[in-house]
What does this fold into?
Amino acid sequence: MIKNILRIAGTMVLPALLIWGCSGSGTVHEYSVNDLNITLEGPLFEGPNQGQYSLEIDLKSILGDAYQEGMLISDARLTSATVAPGDSLGFGMVRSLVLSFASDDAEVAMQEVAFKNPLPAESSSVALDVAPDAELGTLVSGGTVYLVLDADLAEDFYDGNRSFKINLTLDLTVKS
Amino acid sequence: MLRKLSLWAASALIAVTSLNFELQESPGDKLIGVWEPSNGRSRIKIDKIGTKYYGRVVWLIEPNDPETNLPKTDKNNPDAALKNVPLKGYRMLKDFVYQTDGTWSEGTIYDPLNGSTYNCVIKMKDKNTLDIRGYIGVQALGRTDVWKRLATAPAKK
It folds into this structure.
């Protein structure tokens, strides 16, 4: 009887231990980037207009001395995103902002990661509402991520460009 | 002599400009533009991000929710955190890769009416007409809609 219980427990627990041991939980590193400049090139029209920024994510330079060959990003979550105007126009005529991540990898889909709708009036900087379930590991592990900012404008804007500065913080789970 | 030099310089400039233009243009870029689905209730602008193509809603025949009279949001999005994202501007075509057979595939189309995302393939029948086929699993199980290119920027609503 005891033998049978031990046998059953062994068949259930051992594979679980093996899977846990092989995968590991990884270590979480906070990664922040500031003042990323995204420009919406004019002429701009009433409604949504997009700008993009190509962000290189190099694990070796992020981790510095802690980096070891073979390390990779297994998971990534956006924990905060703030946007400030990059020009003297402020947030004038901007109704809402949506931030998405995209990649050149055909296997990896674009994801909306944060937004603010509506934009608070007269604000000098705005913290976007982050989608906590957006799993970005495969997006950022490729090295290059396109940050896409959609700004919904209340009016046409023909006189040049609009620019915004973005600060991001991501939790990167790194495995050996 | 000076005239010959000017002609040579002009030819060289034209050649360099044409070469530069050719380098920037990709055959898949003919998809870029503003398109109208067959029901005429929205207009979608297709752009390129990196090497892939994306389409977002730039015009809605009914931009406001009749119940709230506020701009429509993506209230059927399965991700609760994204239900307040404005529908105007929503990127409903995502991640299309231009293929050597002249189609754009590997992408998805999102239906905001039910919050569902489908696999999708785009074929260009002629330069102003697209066949947009959304499907689940295999292409045979799907529906095709015909989109027309708009020659001008969408009208204000």
About this structure: The helical segments of chain B are 2-24. Chain B touches chain A at residues 47, 49-52, 54, 56-59, 71, 73, 79, 81-82, 84-86, 88-89, 91, 94-95, 97, 106, 108, 153-154, 156 (CB under 8 Å). Strands of chain B lie at 33-36, 42-49, 52-60, 91-98, 103-111, 116-126, 129-135, 142-149. The domain at 28-149 of chain B is CATH 2.40.128.520 (Lipocalin).
